[in-house]
Amino acid sequence: MIEIIPAIDLIEGKCVRLTQGDYGQKTIYNENPLEVALQFEDAGLRRLHLVDLDGAKAKKVVNWKVLDKIASRTSLHIDFGGGVQSEDDLKIVFENGAKQVTGGSIAVKQPDLFQNWIRVYGGEKIILGADAKKEKVAVSGWEEGTEIWVYDFVEQYVEKGIQYAISTDVAKDGLLQGPSFDLYRNLQDKCPDLKIIASGGVSGIGDVEKLAEMNIYGVIIGKAIYENRISLADLQRFSN
């Protein structure tokens, strides 16, 4: 059964969504992220993908108080990403209740530090963020492109012990036009034992069903929930 992972993206402590990572295309959905998290928990969902967009821009964790509030008031399994760039950031995030931490830019720009995190905390607690633009790795909230093939990038970290990877096709994110099924199929072919978490583009329950049929480990859903394309009731059957 595919893991359903609703997303809360944070700017100035509020629940927002961006379109294709563009801070200029921001929609505020709720000024109280805890309220949103409680709705997810009440619907029977077990996990939460919490993204600090302020942190991604500032290159340090900013919204850790929101993490602490949600972690202390719900039983959701939280994976946290955005701005985790140093050992201090990592400690702040774990101390404030995150069960897993996602590192993307750090895995590209400071691979020695990221590999040390994998060694110290284990491949089950550190998630690789492998966002792609035309199959090349994108970093820093997608504001920077690279020439690194995403498949080679992920394979390299699987060899270092990574067990989970979240991959977003930047071209699909926030557009409600369907996920990048080919990207995830290619990742599966390259890294068959990796727990792949699809992110970006989910437009309806049919997309979730297709990813489940592909045996993708998990799917992050944001805008489709907030825009009422998928109801929380629709997702409950995946959580049993």
UniProtKB/TrEMBL annotation:
It holds the Pfam family His_biosynth. InterPro entries: Aldolase_TIM, His_biosynth, HisA/PriA, HisA_bact_arch, Isoase_HisA-like, RibuloseP-bd_barrel. It comes from the Bacteria. Pathway: Amino-acid biosynthesis; L-histidine biosynthesis; L-histidine from 5-phospho-alpha-D-ribose 1-diphosphate: step 4/9. It catalyses: 1-(5-phospho-beta-D-ribosyl)-5-[(5-phospho-beta-D-ribosylamino)methylideneamino]imidazole-4-carboxamide = 5-[(5-phospho-1-deoxy-D-ribulos-1-ylimino)methylamino]-1-(5-phospho-beta-D-ribosyl)imidazole-4-carboxamide. Keywords: Amino-acid biosynthesis, Cytoplasm, Histidine biosynthesis, Isomerase. One of its GO terms (biological process) is L-tryptophan biosynthetic process. Its EC number is 5.3.1.16. GO terms for cellular component: cytoplasm. The keyword Transmembrane does not apply. Gene3D superfamilies: Aldolase class I. It is an enzyme of class 5 (isomerase). GO terms for molecular function: 1-(5-phosphoribosyl)-5-[(5-phosphoribosylamino)methylideneamino]imidazole-4-carboxamide isomerase activity. Its main location: cytoplasm. The active site is at D9, D131. It is found in: Cytoplasm. Belongs to the HisA/HisF family. HAMAP family: HisA (MF_01014). This is 1-(5-phosphoribosyl)-5-[(5-phosphoribosylamino)methylideneamino] imidazole-4-carboxamide isomerase. It comes from Dyadobacter flavalbus. The gene is hisA.
